[in-house]
Amino acid sequence: MLEMSPSKQAAAWLDSFSQALESGDVSAASNLFVDDCYWRDLLTFTWNITTMEGRDAIADMLKSTLATTRPAAWQLSGEATSDEGTIEAWFTFETAAATGQGIMRLRDGRCRTLFTAMTDLKGFEERKGAARPLGVRHKADPERETWSEARARETRELGVSEQPYCLVIGGGQGGIMLGARLRQLGVPTIVIEKNERPGDSWRNRYRTLVLHDPVWYDHLPYIPFPDNWPVFTPKDKMGDWLEMYTRVMELNYWGATRCLSASYDEAEKEWTVVVDRVGQRTTLKPKHLVFATGAYGPPRKIELPGADQFEGELLHSSQYASGEKFRGKKVAVIGAASSGHDVCVDLWESGADVTMIQRSPTTVVKSDTLMQVGFEIFSEDALARGITTEKADMIVASTPFALVPKGQRALYDVIRARDAAFYERLAASGFALDFGDDETGLLMKAYRTGSGYYIDVGASDLIIDGKIGIRSGVAIKSLTAKGILFEDGSEIEADAIIACTGYQSMNENVAALVSREVADKVGPCWGLGSGVKGDPGPWQGELRNMWKPTAQEALWFHGGNLALSRFYSKYVALQIKARMEGIETPVYGASGL
Protein backbone atom coordinates (compact mmCIF):
# COMPACT_ATOMS: atom_id res chain seq x y z
CA MET A 1 0.00 0.00 0.00
CA LEU A 2 2.79 2.39 0.92
CA GLU A 3 4.44 1.93 -2.49
CA MET A 4 1.28 2.96 -4.33
CA SER A 5 0.79 6.52 -5.55
CA PRO A 6 -1.41 8.79 -3.38
CA SER A 7 -4.22 8.66 -5.96
CA LYS A 8 -4.14 4.85 -6.11
CA GLN A 9 -4.18 4.61 -2.33
CA ALA A 10 -7.12 7.02 -2.16
CA ALA A 11 -8.96 5.15 -4.92
CA ALA A 12 -8.40 1.84 -3.15
CA TRP A 13 -9.77 3.20 0.11
CA LEU A 14 -12.76 4.77 -1.62
CA ASP A 15 -13.52 1.50 -3.43
CA SER A 16 -13.42 -0.45 -0.15
CA PHE A 17 -15.61 2.15 1.53
CA SER A 18 -18.11 2.10 -1.34
CA GLN A 19 -18.34 -1.70 -1.29
CA ALA A 20 -18.89 -1.77 2.46
CA LEU A 21 -21.67 0.80 2.23
CA GLU A 22 -23.30 -0.89 -0.77
CA SER A 23 -23.40 -4.23 1.07
CA GLY A 24 -24.64 -2.60 4.27
CA ASP A 25 -21.58 -3.79 6.21
CA VAL A 26 -21.34 -1.04 8.82
CA SER A 27 -18.57 -2.81 10.71
CA ALA A 28 -16.38 -3.05 7.61
CA ALA A 29 -17.04 0.61 6.78
CA SER A 30 -16.18 1.87 10.26
CA ASN A 31 -13.04 -0.28 10.37
CA LEU A 32 -11.70 1.71 7.43
CA PHE A 33 -11.19 4.63 9.86
CA VAL A 34 -8.38 5.16 12.38
CA ASP A 35 -9.26 5.15 16.07
CA ASP A 36 -9.26 8.95 16.48
CA CYS A 37 -11.34 9.66 13.39
CA TYR A 38 -13.91 12.26 12.39
CA TRP A 39 -16.67 12.38 9.79
CA ARG A 40 -18.24 15.78 9.23
CA ASP A 41 -21.44 15.68 7.20
CA LEU A 42 -23.41 18.53 5.66
CA LEU A 43 -26.84 17.03 4.91
CA THR A 44 -25.89 14.09 2.68
CA PHE A 45 -26.22 11.28 5.24
CA THR A 46 -27.72 13.06 8.23
CA TRP A 47 -29.92 15.90 6.89
CA ASN A 48 -28.06 17.83 9.53
CA ILE A 49 -24.78 19.63 10.06
CA THR A 50 -23.00 17.29 12.40
CA THR A 51 -19.68 15.62 13.15
CA MET A 52 -19.27 12.02 14.18
CA GLU A 53 -16.22 11.60 16.41
CA GLY A 54 -14.76 8.09 16.60
CA ARG A 55 -15.60 4.77 14.96
CA ASP A 56 -18.53 4.00 17.24
CA ALA A 57 -20.21 7.31 16.39
CA ILE A 58 -19.67 6.66 12.67
CA ALA A 59 -21.11 3.16 13.00
CA ASP A 60 -24.15 4.43 14.89
CA MET A 61 -24.83 7.05 12.22
CA LEU A 62 -24.53 4.55 9.38
CA LYS A 63 -26.84 2.07 11.09
CA SER A 64 -29.50 4.78 11.27
CA THR A 65 -29.07 6.36 7.84
CA LEU A 66 -27.61 3.91 5.35
CA ALA A 67 -30.87 2.29 4.26
CA THR A 68 -32.50 5.58 3.32
CA THR A 69 -29.38 7.35 2.05
CA ARG A 70 -28.33 4.60 -0.41
CA PRO A 71 -24.95 6.15 -1.31
CA ALA A 72 -23.35 5.20 -4.62
CA ALA A 73 -21.12 6.32 -7.51
CA TRP A 74 -18.10 7.23 -5.38
CA GLN A 75 -15.35 8.65 -7.60
CA LEU A 76 -12.13 10.56 -7.05
CA SER A 77 -12.05 14.03 -8.58
CA GLY A 78 -8.56 15.14 -9.47
CA GLU A 79 -5.26 13.79 -8.20
CA ALA A 80 -4.66 13.01 -4.55
CA THR A 81 -1.79 14.70 -2.71
CA SER A 82 0.48 13.59 0.10
CA ASP A 83 1.94 15.73 2.87
CA GLU A 84 3.91 14.36 5.82
CA GLY A 85 2.25 10.97 5.56
CA THR A 86 -1.31 12.26 5.15
CA ILE A 87 -3.01 11.63 1.82
CA GLU A 88 -5.74 14.07 0.82
CA ALA A 89 -8.21 13.42 -1.97
CA TRP A 90 -11.40 15.00 -3.25
CA PHE A 91 -14.30 12.89 -4.43
CA THR A 92 -17.90 12.97 -5.63
CA PHE A 93 -20.80 10.63 -4.85
CA GLU A 94 -24.57 10.34 -4.94
CA THR A 95 -27.34 9.50 -2.50
CA ALA A 96 -30.96 8.64 -3.16
CA ALA A 97 -31.90 12.32 -2.94
CA ALA A 98 -28.79 14.28 -3.87
CA THR A 99 -25.36 14.58 -5.36
CA GLY A 100 -22.45 15.34 -3.12
CA GLN A 101 -18.75 15.99 -2.88
CA GLY A 102 -16.19 15.58 -0.19
CA ILE A 103 -12.62 15.40 1.03
CA MET A 104 -10.87 12.45 2.66
CA ARG A 105 -7.59 12.44 4.57
CA LEU A 106 -5.88 9.08 5.00
CA ARG A 107 -3.15 7.99 7.37
CA ASP A 108 -1.45 4.60 6.94
CA GLY A 109 -4.23 3.42 4.67
CA ARG A 110 -7.12 4.41 6.94
CA CYS A 111 -9.24 7.54 7.12
CA ARG A 112 -8.53 10.19 9.75
CA THR A 113 -11.09 12.76 8.58
CA LEU A 114 -13.96 12.44 6.11
CA PHE A 115 -16.02 15.36 4.89
CA THR A 116 -19.23 14.97 2.89
CA ALA A 117 -21.40 17.84 1.65
CA MET A 118 -24.52 18.04 -0.48
CA THR A 119 -24.09 19.65 -3.88
CA ASP A 120 -27.58 19.49 -5.42
CA LEU A 121 -30.97 17.88 -4.88
CA LYS A 122 -31.68 15.43 -7.68
CA GLY A 123 -34.35 16.82 -9.97
CA PHE A 124 -34.18 20.23 -8.32
CA GLU A 125 -30.76 21.47 -9.37
CA GLU A 126 -30.14 25.18 -9.75
CA ARG A 127 -30.71 26.39 -13.29
CA LYS A 128 -27.27 27.71 -14.02
CA GLY A 129 -24.42 27.19 -16.46
CA ALA A 130 -25.57 24.97 -19.32
CA ALA A 131 -28.98 24.62 -17.61
CA ARG A 132 -29.56 28.37 -17.32
CA PRO A 133 -33.05 29.63 -18.31
CA LEU A 134 -33.46 30.80 -21.91
CA GLY A 135 -34.96 34.13 -20.84
CA VAL A 136 -37.27 34.44 -23.82
CA ARG A 137 -39.92 32.42 -25.60
CA HIS A 138 -39.25 32.43 -29.34
CA LYS A 139 -42.85 32.55 -30.41
CA ALA A 140 -45.26 35.34 -31.21
CA ASP A 141 -47.88 35.54 -28.46
CA PRO A 142 -50.43 38.32 -27.88
CA GLU A 143 -50.54 37.24 -24.20
CA ARG A 144 -46.77 37.52 -23.81
CA GLU A 145 -45.58 38.62 -20.35
CA THR A 146 -42.24 40.38 -20.35
CA TRP A 147 -39.63 39.92 -17.67
CA SER A 148 -40.41 43.29 -16.08
CA GLU A 149 -44.15 42.55 -16.14
CA ALA A 150 -43.61 39.16 -14.50
CA ARG A 151 -41.38 40.71 -11.81
CA ALA A 152 -43.96 43.44 -11.15
CA ARG A 153 -46.71 40.83 -10.82
CA GLU A 154 -44.63 38.71 -8.45
CA THR A 155 -43.75 41.74 -6.34
CA ARG A 156 -47.37 42.81 -6.25
CA GLU A 157 -48.82 39.40 -5.35
CA LEU A 158 -46.28 37.69 -3.07
CA GLY A 159 -47.28 38.29 0.52
CA VAL A 160 -50.76 39.45 -0.54
CA SER A 161 -52.67 36.99 -2.74
CA GLU A 162 -49.86 34.41 -2.59
CA GLN A 163 -47.95 33.43 0.53
CA PRO A 164 -44.17 32.94 0.68
CA TYR A 165 -42.97 29.45 1.50
CA CYS A 166 -40.13 31.01 3.52
CA LEU A 167 -39.84 34.29 5.39
CA VAL A 168 -36.38 35.60 6.24
CA ILE A 169 -36.25 38.11 9.09
CA GLY A 170 -33.25 40.35 8.52
CA GLY A 171 -32.11 41.81 5.23
CA GLY A 172 -28.43 42.32 5.93
CA GLN A 173 -25.70 40.28 4.29
CA GLY A 174 -26.93 36.95 5.68
CA GLY A 175 -30.56 37.44 4.73
CA ILE A 176 -29.64 38.70 1.28
CA MET A 177 -27.34 35.76 0.53
CA LEU A 178 -29.91 33.24 1.76
CA GLY A 179 -32.59 35.02 -0.25
CA ALA A 180 -30.44 34.62 -3.37
CA ARG A 181 -29.88 30.92 -2.72
CA LEU A 182 -33.59 30.30 -2.18
CA ARG A 183 -34.45 32.31 -5.29
CA GLN A 184 -32.15 30.17 -7.41
CA LEU A 185 -33.83 27.05 -6.03
CA GLY A 186 -37.31 28.35 -6.81
CA VAL A 187 -38.45 28.76 -3.20
CA PRO A 188 -40.96 31.67 -2.91
CA THR A 189 -39.31 33.87 -0.30
CA ILE A 190 -39.70 37.31 1.21
CA VAL A 191 -36.79 38.97 3.01
CA ILE A 192 -37.84 41.68 5.47
CA GLU A 193 -35.53 44.39 6.80
CA LYS A 194 -36.22 47.14 9.32
CA ASN A 195 -33.95 49.60 7.46
CA GLU A 196 -35.27 51.35 4.39
CA ARG A 197 -32.74 50.14 1.81
CA PRO A 198 -30.63 47.04 1.34
CA GLY A 199 -27.16 47.82 2.67
CA ASP A 200 -28.34 50.34 5.27
CA SER A 201 -27.17 48.05 8.07
CA TRP A 202 -23.66 48.89 6.79
CA ARG A 203 -24.27 52.52 5.80
CA ASN A 204 -25.67 53.37 9.23
CA ARG A 205 -22.53 52.34 11.10
CA TYR A 206 -19.75 54.75 12.12
CA ARG A 207 -18.13 56.49 9.18
CA THR A 208 -14.66 54.88 9.38
CA LEU A 209 -15.88 51.27 9.40
CA VAL A 210 -14.04 49.06 6.91
CA LEU A 211 -14.14 45.28 6.66
CA HIS A 212 -11.21 43.68 8.46
CA ASP A 213 -11.34 40.56 6.27
CA PRO A 214 -9.88 40.59 2.73
CA VAL A 215 -11.96 40.63 -0.44
CA TRP A 216 -11.12 37.03 -1.42
CA TYR A 217 -12.77 35.88 1.82
CA ASP A 218 -15.88 38.04 1.43
CA HIS A 219 -17.43 37.26 -1.97
CA LEU A 220 -21.21 36.79 -2.20
CA PRO A 221 -22.70 33.73 -3.97
CA TYR A 222 -23.10 33.90 -7.76
CA ILE A 223 -21.63 37.42 -8.15
CA PRO A 224 -18.05 37.76 -6.87
CA PHE A 225 -16.55 41.19 -6.36
CA PRO A 226 -14.80 42.48 -9.49
CA ASP A 227 -11.03 42.23 -9.84
CA ASN A 228 -10.54 45.93 -9.06
CA TRP A 229 -12.44 45.75 -5.75
CA PRO A 230 -10.34 46.96 -2.79
CA VAL A 231 -8.81 44.36 -0.50
CA PHE A 232 -10.69 45.86 2.48
CA THR A 233 -14.20 47.06 1.67
CA PRO A 234 -15.44 50.40 3.08
CA LYS A 235 -18.87 50.17 4.71
CA ASP A 236 -20.72 52.41 2.25
CA LYS A 237 -19.24 50.60 -0.72
CA MET A 238 -20.45 47.33 0.81
CA GLY A 239 -23.89 48.88 1.34
CA ASP A 240 -24.11 49.84 -2.32
CA TRP A 241 -22.99 46.37 -3.40
CA LEU A 242 -25.67 44.70 -1.30
CA GLU A 243 -28.32 47.00 -2.74
CA MET A 244 -27.18 46.21 -6.29
CA TYR A 245 -27.02 42.50 -5.50
CA THR A 246 -30.56 42.48 -4.14
CA ARG A 247 -31.88 43.98 -7.39
CA VAL A 248 -29.80 41.86 -9.75
CA MET A 249 -30.65 38.62 -7.93
CA GLU A 250 -34.35 39.60 -8.08
CA LEU A 251 -35.06 39.23 -4.39
CA ASN A 252 -38.48 39.97 -2.96
CA TYR A 253 -37.10 42.41 -0.42
CA TRP A 254 -39.35 44.40 1.88
CA GLY A 255 -37.48 47.36 3.33
CA ALA A 256 -38.78 49.51 6.19
CA THR A 257 -40.51 46.40 7.52
CA ARG A 258 -40.48 45.18 11.11
CA CYS A 259 -41.59 41.83 12.44
CA LEU A 260 -44.05 42.40 15.29
CA SER A 261 -44.85 38.82 16.28
CA ALA A 262 -44.64 35.22 15.11
CA SER A 263 -46.31 31.98 16.19
CA TYR A 264 -46.22 28.43 14.84
CA ASP A 265 -49.28 26.26 14.32
CA GLU A 266 -48.14 22.69 14.92
CA ALA A 267 -51.28 21.26 13.29
CA GLU A 268 -51.20 23.39 10.14
CA LYS A 269 -47.39 23.35 9.98
CA GLU A 270 -47.17 27.06 9.25
CA TRP A 271 -46.21 30.31 10.87
CA THR A 272 -48.40 33.33 11.42
CA VAL A 273 -46.15 36.38 11.23
CA VAL A 274 -47.40 39.93 11.72
CA VAL A 275 -45.23 42.63 10.16
CA ASP A 276 -45.37 46.39 9.88
CA ARG A 277 -44.48 47.36 6.32
CA VAL A 278 -44.00 51.10 5.97
CA GLY A 279 -46.68 51.68 8.60
CA GLN A 280 -49.15 49.11 7.27
CA ARG A 281 -49.77 45.92 9.25
CA THR A 282 -49.67 42.70 7.20
CA THR A 283 -50.04 39.05 8.20
CA LEU A 284 -47.89 36.46 6.43
CA LYS A 285 -48.25 32.66 6.53
CA PRO A 286 -44.89 31.11 5.64
CA LYS A 287 -44.06 27.45 6.21
CA HIS A 288 -40.54 28.28 7.35
CA LEU A 289 -39.10 31.16 9.33
CA VAL A 290 -35.42 32.10 9.25
CA PHE A 291 -33.81 34.49 11.71
CA ALA A 292 -31.00 36.21 9.80
CA THR A 293 -30.70 39.13 12.20
CA GLY A 294 -26.93 39.43 12.12
CA ALA A 295 -24.31 37.36 13.86
CA TYR A 296 -25.87 37.99 17.24
CA GLY A 297 -29.03 39.22 18.93
CA PRO A 298 -30.05 42.40 20.76
CA PRO A 299 -27.39 44.72 22.26
CA ARG A 300 -25.91 43.56 25.57
CA LYS A 301 -26.22 46.52 27.90
CA ILE A 302 -24.30 46.15 31.14
CA GLU A 303 -25.48 47.53 34.46
CA LEU A 304 -23.43 50.56 35.46
CA PRO A 305 -24.09 51.75 39.03
CA GLY A 306 -24.60 55.48 39.13
CA ALA A 307 -25.73 55.70 35.50
CA ASP A 308 -28.65 57.86 36.60
CA GLN A 309 -26.18 60.37 38.08
CA PHE A 310 -24.00 60.69 34.98
CA GLU A 311 -24.60 64.07 33.35
CA GLY A 312 -23.07 63.19 29.98
CA GLU A 313 -24.25 61.02 27.11
CA LEU A 314 -24.30 57.23 27.59
CA LEU A 315 -24.59 55.10 24.44
CA HIS A 316 -24.28 51.46 23.39
CA SER A 317 -22.08 50.99 20.33
CA SER A 318 -25.16 50.00 18.32
CA GLN A 319 -26.36 53.60 18.77
CA TYR A 320 -23.04 55.16 17.76
CA ALA A 321 -22.79 56.64 14.25
CA SER A 322 -20.07 59.30 14.26
CA GLY A 323 -17.51 60.92 16.50
CA GLU A 324 -18.09 64.37 14.98
CA LYS A 325 -20.35 65.61 17.76
CA PHE A 326 -17.75 64.59 20.36
CA ARG A 327 -15.00 66.80 18.90
CA GLY A 328 -13.03 68.39 21.75
CA LYS A 329 -14.80 66.28 24.38
CA LYS A 330 -13.56 63.58 26.75
CA VAL A 331 -15.02 60.19 25.81
CA ALA A 332 -14.62 56.86 27.60
CA VAL A 333 -15.13 53.71 25.55
CA ILE A 334 -15.98 50.62 27.61
CA GLY A 335 -14.78 47.55 25.73
CA ALA A 336 -11.54 46.52 24.06
CA ALA A 337 -12.66 44.18 21.27
CA SER A 338 -13.30 45.05 17.61
CA SER A 339 -16.06 47.62 18.08
CA GLY A 340 -14.24 49.25 21.00
CA HIS A 341 -11.11 49.74 18.93
CA ASP A 342 -12.97 50.98 15.86
CA VAL A 343 -15.04 53.46 17.87
CA CYS A 344 -11.92 54.74 19.62
CA VAL A 345 -10.22 55.37 16.27
CA ASP A 346 -13.27 57.16 14.89
CA LEU A 347 -13.47 59.36 17.99
CA TRP A 348 -9.75 60.15 17.86
CA GLU A 349 -9.94 61.06 14.18
CA SER A 350 -12.89 63.32 15.02
CA GLY A 351 -10.84 65.22 17.58
CA ALA A 352 -12.10 63.65 20.81
CA ASP A 353 -9.95 62.88 23.86
CA VAL A 354 -10.44 59.09 24.08
CA THR A 355 -9.81 56.57 26.84
CA MET A 356 -10.44 52.86 26.35
CA ILE A 357 -11.67 50.95 29.41
CA GLN A 358 -10.46 47.36 29.07
CA ARG A 359 -12.37 44.94 31.28
CA SER A 360 -10.62 41.72 30.18
CA PRO A 361 -7.60 40.79 28.03
CA THR A 362 -7.90 41.00 24.26
CA THR A 363 -6.41 38.97 21.43
CA VAL A 364 -4.86 41.36 18.90
CA VAL A 365 -3.49 40.37 15.50
CA LYS A 366 -1.97 42.77 12.99
CA SER A 367 -3.98 42.80 9.77
CA ASP A 368 -0.88 42.54 7.56
CA THR A 369 0.30 39.49 9.48
CA LEU A 370 -3.07 37.79 9.35
CA MET A 371 -3.25 38.44 5.61
CA GLN A 372 0.11 36.76 5.05
CA VAL A 373 -0.17 33.75 7.35
CA GLY A 374 -3.87 33.40 8.23
CA PHE A 375 -5.67 33.90 4.91
CA GLU A 376 -3.26 31.91 2.78
CA ILE A 377 -6.00 30.06 0.84
CA PHE A 378 -8.10 33.20 0.41
CA SER A 379 -5.70 35.32 -1.63
CA GLU A 380 -4.53 36.23 -5.11
CA ASP A 381 -1.71 33.70 -4.76
CA ALA A 382 -4.23 30.99 -3.92
CA LEU A 383 -6.27 31.82 -7.01
CA ALA A 384 -3.11 31.52 -9.12
CA ARG A 385 -2.68 28.00 -7.71
CA GLY A 386 -6.26 27.09 -8.64
CA ILE A 387 -7.76 27.48 -5.16
CA THR A 388 -11.01 29.32 -5.85
CA THR A 389 -13.16 30.78 -3.09
CA GLU A 390 -15.50 27.78 -3.44
CA LYS A 391 -12.61 25.34 -3.06
CA ALA A 392 -11.18 27.28 -0.12
CA ASP A 393 -14.59 27.17 1.57
CA MET A 394 -14.63 23.39 1.27
CA ILE A 395 -11.11 23.08 2.66
CA VAL A 396 -12.06 25.13 5.72
CA ALA A 397 -15.32 23.23 6.24
CA SER A 398 -13.58 19.85 5.94
CA THR A 399 -11.66 20.32 9.18
CA PRO A 400 -13.68 19.11 12.20
CA PHE A 401 -14.02 21.73 14.92
CA ALA A 402 -12.27 19.41 17.37
CA LEU A 403 -9.09 19.63 15.28
CA VAL A 404 -9.15 23.38 14.62
CA PRO A 405 -7.50 24.43 17.95
CA LYS A 406 -4.30 22.50 17.19
CA GLY A 407 -3.81 24.31 13.90
CA GLN A 408 -4.71 27.68 15.40
CA ARG A 409 -2.27 27.17 18.27
CA ALA A 410 0.52 26.54 15.79
CA LEU A 411 -0.54 29.59 13.77
CA TYR A 412 -0.38 31.87 16.81
CA ASP A 413 3.03 30.55 17.77
CA VAL A 414 4.17 31.88 14.39
CA ILE A 415 2.27 35.17 14.81
CA ARG A 416 3.65 35.88 18.28
CA ALA A 417 7.21 35.21 17.18
CA ARG A 418 6.80 37.29 14.02
CA ASP A 419 5.32 40.32 15.85
CA ALA A 420 7.08 39.98 19.22
CA ALA A 421 8.29 43.60 19.23
CA PHE A 422 4.78 44.87 18.47
CA TYR A 423 3.29 42.87 21.34
CA GLU A 424 5.99 44.11 23.73
CA ARG A 425 5.17 47.73 22.90
CA LEU A 426 1.43 47.15 23.21
CA ALA A 427 1.78 45.43 26.57
CA ALA A 428 4.07 48.23 27.78
CA SER A 429 1.28 50.74 27.11
CA GLY A 430 -0.83 49.01 29.77
CA PHE A 431 -2.98 47.06 27.33
CA ALA A 432 -3.78 43.50 28.52
CA LEU A 433 -3.08 40.86 25.88
CA ASP A 434 -4.00 37.21 25.68
CA PHE A 435 -4.40 34.54 23.02
CA GLY A 436 -7.31 32.66 24.52
CA ASP A 437 -7.56 30.20 27.37
CA ASP A 438 -5.66 27.59 25.36
CA GLU A 439 -3.50 29.93 23.25
CA THR A 440 -5.62 29.29 20.13
CA GLY A 441 -6.15 32.94 19.26
CA LEU A 442 -8.76 34.94 17.43
CA LEU A 443 -10.68 32.33 15.40
CA MET A 444 -11.48 30.11 18.37
CA LYS A 445 -12.64 33.14 20.36
CA ALA A 446 -14.93 34.01 17.46
CA TYR A 447 -16.44 30.52 17.37
CA ARG A 448 -16.66 30.06 21.13
CA THR A 449 -17.78 33.43 22.47
CA GLY A 450 -17.80 35.91 19.59
CA SER A 451 -15.84 38.40 21.68
CA GLY A 452 -12.45 39.43 22.97
CA TYR A 453 -10.46 39.98 19.78
CA TYR A 454 -9.32 42.69 17.37
CA ILE A 455 -7.66 42.67 13.96
CA ASP A 456 -5.37 45.68 14.15
CA VAL A 457 -5.91 48.19 11.37
CA GLY A 458 -4.45 51.17 13.20
CA ALA A 459 -5.83 51.46 16.72
CA SER A 460 -2.97 49.60 18.38
CA ASP A 461 -0.37 52.19 17.29
CA LEU A 462 -2.57 54.94 18.73
CA ILE A 463 -2.68 53.06 22.03
CA ILE A 464 1.07 52.45 21.98
CA ASP A 465 1.72 56.14 21.27
CA GLY A 466 -0.65 57.25 24.02
CA LYS A 467 -3.07 58.93 21.63
CA ILE A 468 -5.80 56.61 22.86
CA GLY A 469 -5.64 56.29 26.62
CA ILE A 470 -6.01 52.86 28.23
CA ARG A 471 -7.39 51.79 31.60
CA SER A 472 -6.96 48.09 32.22
CA GLY A 473 -6.85 45.74 35.19
CA VAL A 474 -9.18 47.71 37.43
CA ALA A 475 -12.95 47.33 37.55
CA ILE A 476 -15.51 50.13 37.30
CA LYS A 477 -17.09 50.85 40.67
CA SER A 478 -19.69 53.35 39.48
CA LEU A 479 -20.40 56.27 37.25
CA THR A 480 -20.32 59.73 38.76
CA ALA A 481 -21.85 62.97 37.58
CA LYS A 482 -18.67 63.82 35.69
CA GLY A 483 -17.19 60.44 34.73
CA ILE A 484 -16.14 57.02 36.00
CA LEU A 485 -14.97 55.92 39.46
CA PHE A 486 -12.83 52.76 39.59
CA GLU A 487 -12.48 50.18 42.35
CA ASP A 488 -8.97 51.43 43.21
CA GLY A 489 -10.35 54.91 43.93
CA SER A 490 -9.07 56.51 40.75
CA GLU A 491 -11.39 58.50 38.49
CA ILE A 492 -11.53 59.78 34.94
CA GLU A 493 -13.65 62.57 33.56
CA ALA A 494 -15.96 61.88 30.64
CA ASP A 495 -18.43 63.96 28.68
CA ALA A 496 -19.69 60.79 27.01
CA ILE A 497 -19.42 57.04 27.53
CA ILE A 498 -19.74 54.55 24.67
CA ALA A 499 -20.41 50.98 25.84
CA CYS A 500 -18.96 48.55 23.28
CA THR A 501 -20.20 45.58 25.28
CA GLY A 502 -21.38 43.28 22.51
CA TYR A 503 -24.63 41.55 21.80
CA GLN A 504 -26.79 38.78 23.21
CA SER A 505 -27.46 35.44 21.54
CA MET A 506 -29.65 35.32 18.44
CA ASN A 507 -32.29 33.30 20.29
CA GLU A 508 -33.13 36.44 22.28
CA ASN A 509 -34.70 37.76 19.08
CA VAL A 510 -36.89 34.65 19.14
CA ALA A 511 -37.88 35.46 22.71
CA ALA A 512 -38.95 38.94 21.66
CA LEU A 513 -40.88 37.93 18.54
CA VAL A 514 -42.12 34.38 19.20
CA SER A 515 -41.98 33.53 22.92
CA ARG A 516 -39.64 33.02 25.81
CA GLU A 517 -40.67 29.37 25.85
CA VAL A 518 -39.60 28.76 22.25
CA ALA A 519 -36.36 30.70 22.73
CA ASP A 520 -35.46 28.59 25.75
CA LYS A 521 -36.43 25.37 23.95
CA VAL A 522 -34.12 26.25 21.09
CA GLY A 523 -31.32 27.51 23.34
CA PRO A 524 -28.43 29.87 22.55
CA CYS A 525 -26.72 30.16 19.19
CA TRP A 526 -23.01 29.90 18.42
CA GLY A 527 -20.42 28.41 20.73
CA LEU A 528 -18.94 24.92 20.64
CA GLY A 529 -19.37 23.88 24.26
CA SER A 530 -15.61 24.15 24.80
CA GLY A 531 -15.96 24.85 28.50
CA VAL A 532 -14.19 28.20 28.39
CA LYS A 533 -15.86 31.18 30.03
CA GLY A 534 -18.81 32.28 27.92
CA ASP A 535 -18.95 28.96 26.07
CA PRO A 536 -20.20 26.44 28.61
CA GLY A 537 -20.18 22.68 27.93
CA PRO A 538 -21.01 20.05 27.07
CA TRP A 539 -19.00 19.75 23.87
CA GLN A 540 -21.19 20.16 20.79
CA GLY A 541 -18.78 19.38 17.96
CA GLU A 542 -20.60 21.99 15.86
CA LEU A 543 -21.77 25.55 16.34
CA ARG A 544 -25.00 25.60 18.30
CA ASN A 545 -28.19 25.94 16.24
CA MET A 546 -26.57 27.53 13.23
CA TRP A 547 -27.75 26.64 9.70
CA LYS A 548 -29.47 23.39 10.70
CA PRO A 549 -32.71 22.06 12.22
CA THR A 550 -33.45 23.44 15.67
CA ALA A 551 -35.60 22.17 18.52
CA GLN A 552 -38.45 24.26 17.08
CA GLU A 553 -39.82 22.83 13.86
CA ALA A 554 -39.50 25.11 10.80
CA LEU A 555 -37.35 27.65 12.67
CA TRP A 556 -33.84 28.33 11.40
CA PHE A 557 -30.89 30.57 12.22
CA HIS A 558 -28.58 31.93 9.56
CA GLY A 559 -25.79 34.42 10.12
CA GLY A 560 -22.12 35.08 10.60
CA ASN A 561 -19.52 37.04 8.70
CA LEU A 562 -19.62 37.28 4.92
CA ALA A 563 -17.70 34.04 4.44
CA LEU A 564 -19.85 31.95 6.76
CA SER A 565 -23.03 33.47 5.32
CA ARG A 566 -21.86 32.73 1.79
CA PHE A 567 -20.99 29.10 2.46
CA TYR A 568 -23.76 27.99 4.80
CA SER A 569 -26.57 29.83 3.01
CA LYS A 570 -26.40 27.03 0.46
CA TYR A 571 -27.14 24.37 3.06
CA VAL A 572 -29.98 26.27 4.72
CA ALA A 573 -31.54 26.76 1.28
CA LEU A 574 -31.15 23.07 0.35
CA GLN A 575 -32.84 21.97 3.57
CA ILE A 576 -35.80 24.30 3.02
CA LYS A 577 -36.09 23.38 -0.67
CA ALA A 578 -36.14 19.67 0.17
CA ARG A 579 -39.02 20.19 2.58
CA MET A 580 -40.92 22.29 0.03
CA GLU A 581 -40.64 19.49 -2.53
CA GLY A 582 -41.74 16.80 -0.09
CA ILE A 583 -38.38 15.03 -0.02
CA GLU A 584 -37.95 12.88 3.08
CA THR A 585 -35.46 14.57 5.41
CA PRO A 586 -34.91 12.29 8.42
CA VAL A 587 -32.62 14.31 10.68
CA TYR A 588 -29.90 12.33 12.41
CA GLY A 589 -28.63 13.78 15.68
CA ALA A 590 -30.43 15.75 18.36
CA SER A 591 -32.06 18.99 17.28
CA GLY A 592 -30.92 22.27 18.72
CA LEU A 593 -27.21 21.46 18.95
UniProtKB/TrEMBL annotation:
InterPro entries for this protein: Auxin_biosynth/cation_transpt, FAD/NAD-bd_sf, NTF2-like_dom_sf
Keywords of this entry: Oxidoreductase
Classification via Pfam families: Pyr_redox_3
Record has Transmembrane helix as a keyword: no
Domain of life (superkingdom): Bacteria
UniProt xrefs under PANTHER family: FLAVIN-BINDING MONOOXYGENASE-LIKE PROTEIN (AFU_ORTHOLOGUE AFUA_4G09220) (PTHR43539:SF68)
Protein name: NAD(P)/FAD-dependent oxidoreductase
Species for this entry: Mesorhizobium salmacidum
